[in-house]
Amino acid sequence: MGWHSRSYPGRLCCWVPLGGLCLLAVGQCAGWPRSPPGPPHTACFLLLPGGGAAGPRAGLLRAAHAWGGSRARRDSSQLQHPIWACAAMPEWEALMGGSAAAGAAPVAASLASGLAWSAVSGAAVLYIVISFTEYAYHRYVQHLDLNRLGVYQFARQVLGAPTLVGDFHMLHHRETLDDMSIEPLSKDAFPDATVHRGTSATWLSFFKMAFIVMLQACIPLTALGWSLPAAAVAVLSSTLLHLRAYNSLHPQLHGLPNVTLAEGPPSFPPGSFYESGYARWLRQYHVVHHRSRASRNFNVCCPLVDHLLGTHAEV
């Protein structure tokens, strides 16, 4: 197992997402985040106009209880009238002796902590899913390792599954020299070559990857309380960010131009990401992939799964 990366960026890429996932598991078991003590629910309930089970007060009250997570949800019949709802709540007496506005701060803090928790745990889930996706596609599809798996060989023999054949990525490796420069193959050998010669992600790549990431991330994100629209926006945004980073690293490493908006997810502006220490480390990480004859460092932008499966090599 390749858990013990000696490089500082490698440790961050491996342990930060795993630490976030462990924290998520502990938090779910412990019921985090918990609602703060005191009268926040009733306070915000009174500050809003409109009562009844479908009114904005009742909606906020339900939302506050959902975010708090540590108190039982009130039956909707208790919310038919605002006075009855307040009288039925244990915070009512405390609120009568204090200010309603003073109770708004704790519920705001509760909602903020809930949002922060969902954001951090969701980011950890998306990083892990994207790392797995780029690893699996790069190794098992582009480098044809799927053909070598026993279960897939069985599927080919018994079920008639197709044998994967090399595509432009294999041609990209053939024309890449040890110094990462490109010695172009002939037009006959690489008839579909573009200006980026198979080193960049296109918009079609973006939609394919976003679909695959959504299939994997949908269940854990909704389990964390994300709505489907919010999960979809998060998947699209994170996939776009990932492929923009890829298009800011890979073509330039091989001496090719930046990717424009018309060609795919655009590269970041010069000097913003490409010159960062993390980007320099990622470029060296990918150089090892080429020099190892495509047997190491299959991750490109999110090197987590390489470390988990022992296929990473030190930069």
Backbone structural class: mainly alpha
Number of strands: 0
The total count of helices amounts to: 12
> N-to-C SSE series?
HHHHHHHHHHHH
Protein name: Fatty acid hydroxylase domain-containing protein
Signal peptide: 1-31
Keywords: Signal
Organism: Alexandrium monilatum
Characterization of the model:
Keywords: Signal. Residues 1-31 form the signal peptide. This is Fatty acid hydroxylase domain-containing protein. The chain is an all-alpha fold and 315 residues long. The chain has a domain at 115-309. The protein has helices at residues 8-30, 40-47, 56-68, 82-87, 92-96, 104-142, 150-159, 168-174, 203-223, 228-253, 277-291, 305-309.
Record keyword descriptors for this entry.
single chain; 315 residues; mainly alpha; disordered N terminus
Layout of helices and strands:
Layout: H1 8-30, H2 40-47, H3 56-68, H4 82-87, H5 92-96, H6 104-142, H7 150-159, H8 168-174, H9 203-223, H10 228-253, H11 277-291, H12 305-309
Helix pairs in contact: 1-6, 2-3, 2-6, 6-9, 9-10
Question: Briefly, what is this?
Answer:
The chain is 57% helix and 0% strand.
